[in-house]
Amino acid sequence: MIKNVHGNTVDHLGEAILAGRYPPGSSIPPEPMLCEELGVSRTVVREAVKSLIAKGLVSSGPKVGTRVLPAEQWNWFDPDVIVWQSKAGLTAEFLRDLQDLRRVVEPAAVRMAAERATPEDIAEIEAAFEGMRKAVEEGGDYVTSDLRFHQGLLRACRNRMIVQMSKALGALLRTSFEISTSRKDGPRNSLPLHRAVLDAVIAHEPARAEKAVLVLIDGARDDIELVLASRKRLPRLNEPVRMLRSY
Questions:
Q1: 229, CA 20 to 30 Å: which among 24, 61, 67, 119?
Q2: What is the rounded CA–CA span in Å between residue 58 and residue 73?
Q3: What is the DSSP letter of 236?
Q4: Helical H runs in 19-118?
Q5: Bridge partners (DSSP) listed for residue 59
Q6: pLDDT tens digits, one per residue of 20-67
Q7: Can you tell me the distance from the alpha carbon of 181 to that of 244, in angstroms, rounded to the nearest whole number?
Q8: Reported pTM
Q9: Which domains occur in the chain, in start order?
Q10: Which of 172, 166, 140 lies closest to 241, judged by CA?
């Protein structure tokens, strides 16, 4: 299908840019070379370049060709860009930028959630927490429930822009959770911290909720710094979610 060919072409070029094959300031090969290399038509290449322009990775113009833009201009909220970065290899700078972003956005959002959460919002977050607890106690997929918990909190703040941001943050947060929970007993130790956030939201205590989520975020940041210092291989988004084993 044309869509699959288009998607594969965008992925090929995006991964090459994020991997540094075409560094910022350089030009990607001209259309005829890409057509031959990828076995696709000029139309497919042109549409793929339009997608990369929309993601902030490249600019295109007459006589200058298609040039790769500086990383600061890339759309880091685009899930494709996150996946390509993960395949190329997560960097300490990328992960620290993510933790800074969490520290700015989540405490304020959780404070609002404690003021505005509906019974339905709280039920969703409770269900996510139960999934986390079950994964720790019985084994299973902890990260997906962890992501559901945090996205539930962002939705519960009842701010349409933050809710929209929560969708874009999904791939970013999953990356963070995969790394921070890779430490031995990390998920088990984080459960009471998550519970403290949830209890404060249920009690509609904004200051307490904000303080509790800061403890949680700073703990995750410390876990990530320890993983970075250990030089262990970082997880990639195209790999299956790591399943916890029960003991």
A1: 24
A2: 9
A3: -
A4: 31-38, 42-54, 79-88, 92-116
A5: 67
A6: 999 999 999 999 999 999 999 999 999 999 999 999 999 998 888 899
A7: 10
A8: 0.78
A9: 2-71 (1.10.10.10), 79-230 (1.20.120.530)
A10: 140
